[in-house]
Structures are given as C-alpha cells and as structure tokens.
C-alpha cells in the first residue's frame, strides 16, 4: 500500500504545504527577474564604460590630428629641431591611440590606411617634402573624420543591440510571469480543492442527516481532522437511522396497541354514563365523567401521534386541483359540534374557486388550525377562515378572539411538543403537536406557516402556499 503524506497530513500541514507550493513559482519569478535585471545592469555599465572610453579616445585622436597638423606646419616655416621633435611626439601619441581604437572596430581597413598615412607623414615632413606633406595632412584629416564617423556608428549599433536585448529580456520576463502566475493559480486551486472537496463532502453528509436522506457511501479523503469528522458523521448517521427506525416502530406499535384497549374503555365508560348496567349515584357519575375526559384526551393524543407519524413518512405531496369552498366547508362541519359547545361561530370567506394542493395535507392544516382556534379561542366569539390570493400566493388565514400570542413565542410554537402559555378552554391538555403538524404540512406544500398581527382578531395564523407556476 502506497503512503501519501498529503492524505494523512493534518489541516494545518496541508494549508502550509499548499502555501509553500504556491510560493515556489513566485520565488522562481523573483529570482529570474533579479538575474535578468542584474545582467542588464552589468551590460549597461559595461556599454557605458566602453562608449565613454571610445568617445574619449576619439576626441584625443582628433586633438592629436590637429596638433600634428599645427606642429608640421610650424616646422615647415621655422625648421627647428624642437618643432620636429614636437611633431614626432604627436605622431607617436597618435600611433599609440590608434591600435586601442582599432581593437573595438569590426572593419580594420581604415585603421590600416591611417597607419600607412602616419608612416608616410613621419618620413616626409623631416625632409621638407612639401609637395607630399599637404596631401598627407589632408588625407590624415579626412581619414580621421571617417574613423570618428565609424566609431559613432558602431556605438549606435551597440546601443541598438542593447535595446533589443533589453526588449527581449522584458518579453521573456513577461512570458515567464504569465506562465508562473498561471502555475501559481493552478497550485492555489489545487490546494484549495484539497480542502474544499472534503468540506463539500461533509456538507453533503450533514445535509443528508438533516433532510433524512440516504447517507453518501463515499468516504471523506483529505486532512485527518476532516477525515475523522466524516467518520464521526457516518457513525452519527447510522445511530440516527437506528433511533429513527426504533421511533417509527415504537409509534406504530404503541399507537396500534393503544387503540384496541382504548376503544374498550370508551365503550365501557359510555355504558356506565348511560346507566345501562345499573343506576349510579352522584359520586359514581363524577368518576365516570373524569374517566370519559381522560379517555377522550388519550384518544386525541393517540390520533395526533398517528397523524404526526404519517406526516413524517410522507415524502412527496400529491398535488391536484380541488374546489376550495366545499373542501373547507366539509372540514368545518366535522368540527361543528366542538365549536357549538364553546359557543363559537365560523365565518368563511373563500375568495378562491379552485386550489392546487394535496387534499390530505390541506385538510390536516385546516383541522389543526380549527382545533387550535376552538381550544384557545374565547367563548361566544367568532372564528374567521379566509382563503385569498395575495402577492402571487394563496393565503389561508384562521383568526379567533382570545389571548394574543407574544412575538417572542410565535416561532417556538411551530416546533414539536411546544405549548403556548394561554390555557385551553376545552379542559383537555394538548400535546404540542398541532401547530408543528401545520408547519410540516405547509413545508411539504412548499409554503410557510406564521403567526401575524391583525386588527381583525387577537390571534391569526397565516399559511402561505405557492401558486402552481411557483411549485417546482
């Protein structure tokens, strides 16, 4: 089995190694830039020194030509040995400078001609051959001018070559910069993917746990901290699946096992309360009344648990078009008896003809909202049920009079097993699942449940449901 240090490295080591790898191209670029700048600087200094020396020698040679011409003309007039010596010294100085200049020139033919002219001039002027001296001086002066011109041209060529070298180095550095920057970005992307890939995998695992979906089979590969976290999430998911299976089994069996003896108890209490098995005194009737109330509460809790269990198992709603008003009216009729006992009246405002929804989920929402309004609403009051279309949504609002709900408690009431502080008026202790079922049903319908403030009632629960074109 091959060992990869990056797979077992810690998150800190991976970040540091990625940072170091990303810095390598930058360091190479800085080194190459420094080398190129140093080389260009050295070439510039050398070229400047060479140019300065060439210009200085050229000026000296031009001055020497003037001195030679002056000394020879003076000797031709005065004919003294001292002037001859001066002229000879100027010629010797020029002859010493000429090879130094000729070493840096590509074409040495002009230097050879100038050497021959100097030799002829050095031999001619002591013999006072004036017919040869004047043409030699003129030739020396002209050749010096061409020599100076050739030196200037050579300096310009060297300067142009240096500029091309600088441009070439600049272009090379530009391409190297582009390549190394791209390489740096690739290394940064590679290093970031080494971190983001396991993080994305952890996110999918957490999302699968939160949404109760199938847990990914792929394991997290990357830093050991993230790998260990992935294994812990895998263990947690397995544990949650076991607990979920146990919970479903418990709810299914407990609810089923409770319904049969509960029905027998209710029938027995009904027989006793109707005194079919014999007359009862006042105390016995009070005991039977308490038994009837407890039996009713236990039956209601069992039905809510079964309803909540069925809701959790429903993965996708079945959406169809339904006529809105008959569906709501049927639900109100089922709650008519409990509403009459509290002296409550129902006012229906159905402003929508048809509703695109899941009938079972919509009925659960309406059942629980009406039951909540009946349980917590004021006696001899009105319960308003309104279905309208607002803001590209369907709004189902159930309003009742009673104790207003504080703003800081509204979100908490939609959580399972959370009850409000207001007392129930039906003498039955609630389970805290009613509004939770409402919120879960609304979520399955891609909607939202909320408690809002309104001037029409003390309590208003609004369900926002999307129109068909907004449903994915």
TrEMBL record:
Coiled coil: none annotated. Keywords: ATP-binding, Kinase, Membrane, Nucleotide-binding, Phosphoprotein, Transferase, Transmembrane, Transmembrane helix, Two-component regulatory system. Gene3D superfamilies: 1.10.287.130, 6.10.340.10, Histidine kinase-like ATPase, C-terminal domain. The chain crosses the membrane at residues 173-191. Its main location: membrane. Residues 193-245 form the HAMP domain. SMART domains: HATPase_c (SM00387), HisKA (SM00388). It catalyses: ATP + protein L-histidine = ADP + protein N-phospho-L-histidine. Residues 253-469 form the Histidine kinase domain. InterPro entries: BphY/WalK/GraS-like, HAMP_dom, HATPase_C_sf, HATPase_dom, His_kinase_dom, HisK_dim/P_dom, HisK_dim/P_sf. It comes from the Bacteria. One of its GO terms (molecular function) is kinase activity. This is histidine kinase.
């Amino acid at each position: 089995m091959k060992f990869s240090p990056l797979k077992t490295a810690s998150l800190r080591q991976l970040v540091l190694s990625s940072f170091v790898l990303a810095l390598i191209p930058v360091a190479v670029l800085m080194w190459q830039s420094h080398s190129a700048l140093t080389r260009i600087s050295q070439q510039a200094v050398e070229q400047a020194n060479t140019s300065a020396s060439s210009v200085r020698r050229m000026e000296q040679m031009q001055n020497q030509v003037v001195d030679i011409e002056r000394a020879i003309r003076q000797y031709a007039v005065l004919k003294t040995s001292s002037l001859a010596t001066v002229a000879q010294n100027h010629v010797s100085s020029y002859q010493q400078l000429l090879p130094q200049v000729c070493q840096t020139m590509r074409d040495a033919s002009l230097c050879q001609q100038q050497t021959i002219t100097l030799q002829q001039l050095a031999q001619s002027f002591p013999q006072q051959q004036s017919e040869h001296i004047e043409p030699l001086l003129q030739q020396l002066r002209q050749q010096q001018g061409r020599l100076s011109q050739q030196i200037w041209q050579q300096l310009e060529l060297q300067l142009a070559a240096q500029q091309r070298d600088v441009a070439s180095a600049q272009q090379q550095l530009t391409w190297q910069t582009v390549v190394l920057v791209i390489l740096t970005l690739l290394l940064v992307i590679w290093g970031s993917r080494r971190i983001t890939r396991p993080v994305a995998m952890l996110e999918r695992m957490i999302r699968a746990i939160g949404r109760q979906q199938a847990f990914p089979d792929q394991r997290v590969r990357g830093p050991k901290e993230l790998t260990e976290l992935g294994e812990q999430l895998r263990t947690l998911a397995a544990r949650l699946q076991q607990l979920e299976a146990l919970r479903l089994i418990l709810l299914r069996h407990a609810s089923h096992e409770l319904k049969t003896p509960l029905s027998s108890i209710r029938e027995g209490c009904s027989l006793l309360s109707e005194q079919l098995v014999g007359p009862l005194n006042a105390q016995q009737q009070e005991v039977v009344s308490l038994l009837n109330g407890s039996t009713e509460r236990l039956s209601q809790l069992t039905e809510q648990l079964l309803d909540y269990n069925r809701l959790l198992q429903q993965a996708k709603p079945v959406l169809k078009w339904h006529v809105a008003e008959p569906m709501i009216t049927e639900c109100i009729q089922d709650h008519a008896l409990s509403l009459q006992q509290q002296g409550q009246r129902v006012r229906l405002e159905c402003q929508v003809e048809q509703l695109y929804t899941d009938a079972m989920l919509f009925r659960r929402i309406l059942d629980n909202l009406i039951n909540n309004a009946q349980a917590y609403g004021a006696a001899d009051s009105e319960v308003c049920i309104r279905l309208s279309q607002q803001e590209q949504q369907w709004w189902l609002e159930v309003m009742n009079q009673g104790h207003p709900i504080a703003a800081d408690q509204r979100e908490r009431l939609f959580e399972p097993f959370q009850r409000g502080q207001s007392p129930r008026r039906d003498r039955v202790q609630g389970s805290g699942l009613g509004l939770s079922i409402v919120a879960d049903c609304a979520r399955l319908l891609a909607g939202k449940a909320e408690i809002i403030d309104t001037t029409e009632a003390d309590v208003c629960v609004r369900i926002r449901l999307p129109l068909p074109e907004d449903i994915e």
